């Protein structure tokens, strides 16, 4: 392996990770996939590669499409709600992309409903601004099909999402929610939550008390949160972080992370509560 080839790979690695993570929703799986890309790059005849960045992006995307099929099957046997593995985006707010599209946890959850090929087309276009002819070449479809895939994905996300509030307002709502949750303040919780709020707790069945089904509705969610106010927050050291490009609360007890909490919000209030409590995913985040 030449020094030049190593430097080329290192230079584009943030973008490759950004593609793989958006495709798989898992930092661990993305890292594993990049190891495979690296091995293939090592064994390839570099003299035949006219555009190394494009070549490596193509290899990464095609491997991610294949891996996405396996990931979907795993998620079907997951215990309780599945959420993407959180990533700290304070150092690289866009994970090597042109834009921060397809990075928010709630959006990644919606992308799970797309086929891996639809997801790839959407990620390449919306996050990395690849031209349609190149997207078509990467995912091995016609240019017209590539445009159609992106269009379908956009419509799906638009139908499923409300217009989000600003980052500052989201941070305000999250901060207010944490304070109300700690106090078990029912009135304040109901004030902050949208009428049809949904609370998702990802623990893969390993955390006692974590609901194995989404909890729906302002009153029900508020009651559940109040019921756990005396135990869930006991001894919690709360810090704030930028997770997947958005504000999040990181909860530690005795120095160990036990939850990363983020929300999605609109003019209706907090629409979704996203509790990441799966120890394996939190270990990777920490």
Globular, elongated, flat, extended or rod-shaped: what is the shape?
Answer: elongated
Task: Say how many strands there are.
Answer: 6
How much helical structure, as a percent, in the residues? 40-55%
Strand order of the largest sheet: 2-1-6-5-4-3
Low-pLDDT residue spans: none
Indicate the radius of gyration in whole angstroms: 20 Å
C-alpha termini separation: 32 Å
Instruction: Tell me the quaternary state.
Output: single chain
Order of helices and strands: HHHHHHHHHEEHHEEEEH
Q: Provide the residue-averaged pLDDT.
A: 95
Estimate the strand proportion: 15-25%
Number of helices: 12
Largest sheet data: 6 strands, mixed
Q: Structural class of the helices, strands and pairings?
A: alpha+beta
